[in-house]
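Please predict the structure of the following assembly.
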Amino acid sequence: MANRRGQTEMIGLVVIVIMLTLGMLFLAKFALQEEPAKKIFTRKGLAYSTMSAVMKTELECYDSATSNDPDELKVQADLLEDCADVVRFNTAGDISCYGYDSSCDLLEEEISILLNATLGEWHKEYLFSAEVLVGTEPLTVLEIDSGGCATSTERDSSGLFPIYVTNVGLIESVLYICE
Amino acid sequence: MKTINKKQQRKWGIFPKGRRAQMQMMETIGVIFIFFVLVLFGSIFYFKFQEISFQNQQEELLAQKAMDITLVTLFLPEIQCSQGDAESEDNCVDMTKVRAMNMMMEENPRYLTDYYFNIFGYANISVNMVYPINYSWTVYEFEKTGIYDNGTEYSAWDRKEATYFVITLRDGMQGYGYDSAVSSLFLGNEIIYSFGYLKIEVFS
């Protein structure tokens, strides 16, 4: 009789253990759920479209404080080329805009404003980087970091936006967006 | 043989037969009670989870809808950058077309209900310029509203999902103006690329 009761208690114990295990598995399934693929796609798409828009944007460059008619300079085609030249050969560059030391100065300030007004407003961290490939060593031309994106593992890239500039080399720009 | 009194029986856990059955009954009731409490907790947890899961699903559907509308808007011929028969530019909006569409929607609200509502549904779409100036143009506006008995309108949506997409704004009308020297209008052929974003809000 005592043996029978022991058996029944054992079964009860096993049922409780099974229920607890199922509960744990249920919890673990939702706790370890992966990031939805759509969210990653959206971030990737946003990184690409932002980079593409930044590269095409024309920034205003005034000759002097009294000038009313600014020159419109393309980020990728004019300013980045000139900035790479400034960084690579340590020259003053061909582009001179009122209020800025060089094209690099203008790029850094204006791209920061553009990214802050969009990605920054939407609470997204970003890292914009442009490098010129000289031999095997990449030389940093421009780096704008909102903070926290350089080491983040959950980040998506716009992909490389390369341009080749004669006498300077290959300039590769990339934008990373992270949460 | 030594007999023991009732006090000693209680002390050593020796009960009469009827009393022992009562104790076992109590034990069984206790076990069943605990079992039902566990089942109740499980059920509460499950239904709570189902409720959250349903809400998440609704949110995901709305986000999906916002994403779909964003893609439709990006490739909408009415505002997309084009150059004759050449392939249209990616992530680019022609400001001349945007201004024309904005004007058309204001002048002919029937286009909104008869044609564009079938494409976008309850949504707000605006093109926002960030550089060189901050400005916004509404391309489409159709908020889900209801009407009270007294005739006043109210917002009839439960959820709103906003999606943003950074775009290039191409403007070929920047050189448009009046030249006083020759007393005539001029149209500059210079195309300017500005920076902005598309804001899409969907309602459910």
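Chain A has four helices and seven strands. Chain A has two domains: 1-33, 35-178.
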